Amino acid sequence: MNLDKKIDYSIALLRKAESMALRLNPENGFYLAFSGGKDSQALYHIAQMAGVKFKAHMNLTSVDPPEVIRFVRRQYPDVELIKPKISIYDIAKKKGILPTRQLRWCCYVYKEQNAAGKINLVGVRKQESTRRNNWKEMQINGGKTFKGNFDQFSIHNETMISCMGGGKEKIVVSPLLDWTEQDIWTFLNTVANVPHCELYDKGYRRIGCIGCPMTHYKQLLREFSDYPHVKRNWMKTIEWLMTNKWTDVRWDNPEQAFNWWISGKSFDKFYADEVLQQKFDFDL
Question: pLDDT, tens digit, for every residue of 55-65?
């Protein structure tokens, strides 16, 4: 489909799903997950074009780029900024572990819990990763395995809503699932005609938490260089963990542990590649 058809399809999807959103949250309708990035901007403006009822929320984590927060406050003052009750560093101390790709507890603590029991709008796109190729335009998250297209949900929406028992589940709607990155930029620049966060103009391809474990290694190096205070705080956290929680781990110092964390390697591989090899005496 060309962009015009994708826009029409996304709008139709939102309008069809609105009845379920209002059923679960009559006051605000959809729970729109907003980050200040290009995809969440497109999602916000598509929801406006659809004329559906929604409330946009941005869940802060204490490691948010200040440029993004300023941009959202200036351009999207109606977005609710949800401040963390406890910093990500203190939660890491409490849990005794840093957030990683395999244990991404940060998203659950700061974002997923607030959206439970509602119809969530997210800006997920299949093009972003192979893992997202399995996403459906509507699916239940939070323990339920059913996934399907909108027609399946609309036929059984009473059943789907009743499946969200316990308050932990949520129905996730992804209106931009088949959009490309070029679609997003064309939409923002020509259809919505809105400005974007300055970080994109500085070479950032993705906007999110500083040091997100889902970010590739080179980007992490740049982020911690651009925001040294975040690295300092993580180093202090790691030092505390080494003293109080990781007493049986073989790290020589916090810097070594930090380098392992952002490398994306397993403990054994990093230790073999970066630590043991440094200890070999090649002069022998």
Answer: 999 999 999 99
